[in-house]
Model the fold of this input.
Amino acid sequence: MFDVDAVPQTILVEAAEFGDILIVHPSRSSPSEHPFSLLPKVLQFFRWATDACVSATHILKTNEHSFVHVSRLQAELESVAMISSTGLVYGRIMRRQRAGKTDRENLHNLVEWPPYPSGSGYVVTRDIGKFLGTFAADVSLRYEFEDRAVGLLLAGYAAKTVTKGFGTHLELRNGQDQFRPWGHCTPETLVLHYQSHDRLLRRRFERARRGEPLCGEGFAPHDVCVRAEFHKPATFRMAVYLTRCPLQRSRGRINSSGQGTRGVRKVPRHTKLTTTAD
Done:
């Protein structure tokens, strides 16, 4: 978080009791909370993590409304399949994302953005965290999308002058089922984005505590309309067609993204949704 004076008292009390919140000082490029403040916070976090947690071999970056199955994620990192101890970025890797030539953040007229991990949650090895932390004091880095900026930094395209980036020993490992940026739950899910509702979080927590997968029972085929974040209608791609949710009063259901449903639209019973678990 930025700016101690702007932090709510409840947050300060929690930070003092549990020591689980890092408050960083605002930089000249990001004096307050807005999209451009995200990247400096992430970079300062990596610098703090590598300086303060000297025995840590891996660092998890996540969002405040992502649910993390800590025990299963730790077991995954300790498995033989995750033996890499250097040069690893593990998450939902975004590839082949088109870069507009008129985009002010496209300093080198790239056709596609370099691959990057979705900011909803990803794990890096210590050397990656240390590399990213070296940019914490660079006030010239102004990017609205902090996860895309991480990809630019790793590839050496974040500054006006191209650098070597992290180097050739970088492994971007895609955890398509383990890291779910859009709230779609699978039995393999380790990090699940868009989890805000307290009752939903409690159900996820109880399942995780029992060592179970995070997902619950599926919705009926006709329960398709949900409320996205910031009160925007959500769109779900279905097997038959696209449907947009009408802005109606919530009927109390909770969908996989942690929000209350805004209405129910009847669709054919053979229709399959891309997200079905609560």
About this structure: The chain has a mean pLDDT of 75.
